[in-house]
Design a protein that fits this description.
Layout: H1 4-13, E1 19-24, H2 38-45, E2 52-59, E3 77-82, E4 103-107, E5 123-127, H3 136-144, E6 151-155, E7 171-172, E8 178-185, H4 186-195, E9 196-197, E10 205-212, H5 218-225, H6 230-239, E11 243-248, E12 252-259, E13 262-269, H7 273-284, E14 294-299, H8 306-313, E15 318-324, H9 332-339, E16 352-356, H10 363-372, E17 386-392, H11 408-416, E18 420-427, E19 437-440, E20 445-448
Parallel strand pairs: 1-2, 2-3, 3-4, 4-5, 5-6, 6-8, 7-9, 8-10, 10-13, 11-14, 14-15, 15-16, 16-17, 17-18
Antiparallel strand pairs: 11-12, 12-13, 19-20
Length: about 450
Amino acid sequence: MMPAEVISVCLSRSKAHPLLIHYRGPGARGLNKGWTSFPQFFELTKPHRHRWAMAWLYIPPSLAVGIFNQVMPLLHTVNLMSAGGMPSATDTPFGAEFNVLQNVVVHGGPASWVLGHSRGLRTWRLKGLRGGGLTTEHILGILRENLLLEMLEMDQLGVHILPDNIPLTPIPLLRLTSLTICSCNGELVDRILRRIRIPIDRVNQFSITVGSWGSLNPVRLLTDVLASWSPAFQRAHQTCGGSKFYLSNLGTFYWGAIEDGTTFRLSFSGLKPVTGVQWMAGILSQVDEPKAGASIECQSTALENLEDLKSLGSTDMITAVHVCVDHSGASLQALLQALSDPATPAFPSLQILTIKGFSWGMESIVKMLQVRFTANRTGITQLPRLKIVVSYPEWSYDSSFQRQIIDFGTVKAIYALNGVYQLRLGCSIGQDGMLGVVWSDKLGGPTWG
């Protein structure tokens, strides 16, 4: 923050032009001794509040009281960040109506910072509000008064869920293009998504992350609330050229479709990953046009449950599986066995198989391929040819560990199956490498060089 003398000169020279007010308070990095405190700064700029066009303030909640308690005809953007201190229910900076206020960002302050905004917001972003007192009716009430919203973001909000006794009157947010609800209670997500009505074909940013559910059943959110978003998920999947599932053995479901300008993402703790994948696979299978594929990324231990693996393996929209092997490698065997089931091989649309952190011989992989592509399957049972990427650990706790180079004969045997169109070998960290093939006079044939 500049010294008071410099601020005074800047205000004088700005004449009648709109002002961009930016203050980083105590606790902010780079604040030098002798520089202006916020009370000093506010006293200097207070007479010019009618010229404030944007206010970016990083201050303790107690210093925010009454900052915006008069009509400020040019103010269109407010960004309030709490710089520490215990919030109070009376620490509200707002006390006046704003005619042109369009963008409000509140980060880390008390719940009272949410109240008292304008009725013409375009952007409303809330993160980490503290101190309690915020209810679902507060949130829904502000949404009702700001039907021109284009961006809505709520992150880590402690919101009291009131009984939903009033009729479900829809809240039409017909200009909304970006919706983010991150690390909030599932009941809050449920309440908001049930009320708002959005033109789904306009939305290009949709991110929902639920860390706790309260009394809400996660499956209910999928089947009752998010079902209406099916067209948006289908469009995002196709627009982004496919999407990705992440499976966690800790019980977290993740789905994402991300491309330049488009982000759709769901992450639910406490939801069985297989349940989430099957639900989303059912939605994406309804796409009429040629379907983009989906990939699965996971630790190999997430595939140890054979029933879950069987359910996942029956999904014909999975075209890529990326698995990171645990230190023993035992959990990988379940996947290899499922892929080589002679009756119904898992993942019938699989085109890419990536195994990261692999430090054993290729025998089990070769055996899997031999069974999967027996007699070069034809007709309706024909399976797509595979690209296989095997990466070895770059280092190991075991000082005796040495990365193996697959012998050329094994590679020839893999390609001879006519089920693999590419095999890449490399390290799990850094750029994947490819070995060259040279003629060996000593061996009388091709080998690695």
